[in-house]
Specification:
Keywords: Coiled coil, Membrane, Transmembrane, Transmembrane helix. It holds the Pfam family DUF4349. The protein is of the alpha+beta class and about 270 residues long. The protein has one domain. About 65% of the residues lie in helices and about 20% in strands. The protein has eight helices and five strands, in the order ααβαββαβααβαα. A five-stranded mixed beta sheet has the order 2-3-5-1-4. Strand 2 and strand 3 form a beta hairpin. The longest helix has about 35 residues. The chain is elongated and about 130 Å long.
Length: about 270
């Protein structure tokens, strides 16, 4: 009797267990296992990062100096940039009171960066500003490549699951995850391309200018005094010239004053 009761209780339980095992359970069990694949792949990327990598440097320079011949300075710079396989990315000229300046942004291969700096330096006697900067992005470069590889592996895993999907809900869930993964892949690829461009081509910011006003005014205190004396004489000259312009008025005022004064003395 006990055996029959036990048998009756066991059969419904077994049936309920079999009926609860649906495609959704199979799908989500595989979905939960996916991070293990990503973790395993990330462990492989650690070995990739540990391998020796060529140093990735972003080289940049800022130069500012005065010149007496704007056209000659620009011509020499253009020759130096062309000789080092570079190009001018931006060129602007600014004119203000007593000053003309030109700003150039040049891009050239990183291997020719120092040669270009040395060539420019030979043609300039004095720099107002000269700054050279190198930024090491090797670690970021390796990290991006490793993460990109991991994301692509995860994308392939989801594509395999998409082939095995049995209903609309599974398809929509997988496609939503794929969309998120692909956005992350595109963002990392964009950042990687930007770094590759910055590493391959160095940037030189150059500004040269010419002062067109008289510099003698600011050379010494004595020259300032002499200019002030000359300015005073000029002021007196302008004053007398102004009087000549109003001589009729001065004449009328003089005659009027004489007549009034004469009448006043006659009365006395």
């Amino acid at each position: 009797m006990k055996f029959l009761i036990t048998l009756l209780l066991t059969i419904p339980l077994a049936c309920s267990n079999n009926s609860g095992s649906t495609l959704d359970d199979t799908y989500y069990s595989e979905d939960i296992a996916m991070p293990e694949v990503a973790v395993e792949n990330f462990e492989n990327t650690k070995q990739f990062a540990a391998t020796p990598q060529k140093q990735k440097l972003i080289k940049e320079s800022v130069m500012r100096y005065e010149t007496q011949d704007m056209a000659d300075a620009y011509s020499k710079l253009s020759q130096i940039i062309s000789a080092n396989d570079g190009f001018i990315q931006d060129d602007s000229e600014i004119k203000s009171y007593g000053r003309t300046s030109r700003q150039i942004i040049a891009r050239l291969p990183s291997d020719n960066f120092q040669n270009a700096i040395d060539a420019i330096t030979k043609n300039v006697d004095y720099f107002d500003t000269k700054r050279i900067n190198s930024k090491d992005v090797t670690e970021e470069f390796i990290d991006l490549e490793a993460r990109l590889k991991a994301k692509k592996t995860l994308e392939n895993r989801y594509l395999e699951l998409l082939k095995q999907a049995k209903n609309v809900k599974e398809i929509l869930d997988i496609e939503q995850e794929l969309s998120t993964i692909r956005e992350e892949i595109e963002a990392k690829q964009g950042r990687l391309k930007y770094l590759q461009n910055q590493v391959a081509l160095s940037t030189i910011h150059i500004e040269f200018y010419k002062v067109t006003s008289n510099k003698g005014v600011t050379k010494s205190y004595g020259s300032k005094m002499w200019n002030a004396v000359k300015s005073g004489f000029n002021g007196i000259s302008i004053f007398f010239l102004g009087l000549l312009h109003i001589w009729p008025l001065i004449l009328i005022c003089g005659i009027t004053f004489y007549i009034i004064k004469r009448k006043f003395f006659k009365k006395k």
